[in-house]
Specification:
The protein is α/β, with parallel strands linked by helices. Helix content is 39%, strand content 20%. Helix 6 packs parallel to helix 8. The protein binds iron/sulfur cluster.
């Protein structure tokens, strides 16, 4: 299993929960704001074979302190066979499993779905996938299929909404209206203003110069409006 390491105690990977977090390499998307792009690209600089036994030892030592074993990336489902084996083993030992996925590979999600207690995902405008319009639209359909699968399985979902400058509120509103009918079981939203250099190292710095760091005033106002739109879309 190729990964970029783990952190035994993390307070920032799942909202309000303590996690043991593992980063896996590879991703099928090319999001311009991605600050884990070296992991997503599977670069030699960032990725190597994970020492599973050592990781399980570290996990065991903090088991009573954590809420979830959380796997992120990259896109963890790119290594679904190995991931399924690991999840099965941990689940049989009573560990709760949380997956961070872009949810654009529903046929791979199905492989691990019964083993998941929690899923975190970005709710992105399709323009953010890093592909042309037709491909992005097909990818977004897959995202909706994944939400349907999670709803059927009654899996708790955390949806993080990347907020960027230079996009109309109506684009977000259309996104919410498309997504809300697919959310039938526990879910919650996190508004996530995109950061850029020097706080992060995004894949596409030019894109980030134009779209990251919505100004404070503008950002607060936008977040407020988006919260209202979300509440309305939820009704
Ligand atoms: S889906 Fe996540 S890991 Fe993959 S490119 Fe986008 S932000 Fe990066």
């Amino acid at each position: 299993m190729k990964g970029a390491g783990w952190k035994s105690i993390s307070l920032v990977d799942v909202k309000g929960k303590v996690t043991f977090t593992l980063w896996l390499c590879g991703c099928n998307l090319r999001c311009p704001f991605c600050h884990n792009w070296k992991i997503a690209n599977g670069s030699r600089e960032a990725c190597s074979e994970i020492d599973i036994e050592k990781m399980k030892g570290d996990l065991l030592s903090v088991l009573t302190l954590i809420d979830y074993f959380h796997v992120t990336g990259g896109e963890p489902l790119m290594q679904v066979n190995e991931l399924k084996g690991l999840f099965k083993e941990l689940k049989s030992e009573g560990v709760k499993i949380s997956l961070n996925s872009n949810l654009t590979l529903p046929w791979l999600l199905e492989e691990v779905l019964p083993l998941l207690d929690h899923v975190a995902t970005d709710l992105k405008l399709p323009e953010f996938y890093g592909y042309g319009e037709a491909t992005s639209s097909a990818i977004f359909s897959n995202f909706l299929k994944s939400l349907d699968l999670l709803a059927e399985a009654h899996t708790k979902v955390e949806l993080r909404i990347p907020i960027a400058k230079g996009y109309e509120l109506s684009a977000y509103e259309n996104l919410f209206r498309a997504v809300v009918p697919h959310l039938k079981f526990p879910h919650y939203f996190v508004l996530n203003r995109l950061l850029g250099p020097p706080l992060t190292e995004p894949r596409d710095e030019i894109w980030c110069r134009a779209h990251c760091f919505a100004g404070l005033e503008e950002g607060v106002e936008e977040l407020d409006k988006l919260s209202k739109i979300l509440n309305t879309a939820n009704l």
